[in-house]
Specification:
The chain has three helices and six strands, in the order H-H-E-E-H-E-E-E-E. The chain has helices at residues 2-26, 28-42, 68-77; strands at 52-59, 65-66, 80-96, 99-112, 115-130, 133-144. A hairpin with a 2-residue loop joins strand 3 and strand 4 (99-112).
């Protein structure tokens, strides 16, 4: 009897976990928007605002904190130019209702005030789903020192 109960519990747990994974795999749009974010940053594409929530907050590794207006101003002035953004790791995905928390690492090459830079960043991004569209609501980056 204990074995049957244990089997049922393990089967239920495994089935529930597979459902969780399937729900993330089915929502490819979130992952597409994460890739779009990197691409838009790298190519200085103004369409980036299409995937940003109006209440977005960017916390940069150098201590800057930007709202949407600060971001638009700096982005259009090309204050920072990203030449390459490459995701190296996707370490955590959590989802609750219409909110997703993503932890990932990226390698970034770019220029700031005519100075080239290269760095590894750990990111925490919070995405919210509004009207079936995933929008970046908050992003915090921290430099990973070698």
């Amino acid at each position: 009897m204990k074995r049957i109960l244990l089997f049922i519990l393990l089967f239920s747990w495994a089935f529930w976990n597979c459902q969780q994974i399937d729900s993330f795999q089915k929502d490819e749009k979130l992952f597409e928007n994460i890739k779009l974010l990197d691409s838009y940053l790298q190519n200085n594409n103004g369409r980036i605002v299409d995937i940003l929530d109006p209440d977005v907050s960017f916390g940069h590794s150098n201590g800057w904190v930007q709202n949407i207006e600060d971001f638009k101003k700096d982005f259009s002035s090309k204050k920072v130019i990203y030449r390459d953004i490459h995701q190296t790791e996707l370490s955590e995905i959590k989802r609750y209702k219409n909110t997703a928390s993503i932890r990932r690492k990226i390698k970034v090459l770019g220029t700031y005030k005519n100075q080239d830079f290269e760095m590894q960043l750990a990111l925490l991004e919070i995405w919210i789903k509004k009207n079936a569209v995933w929008k970046l609501w908050s992003r915090q980056s921290v430099e990973i020192k070698p």
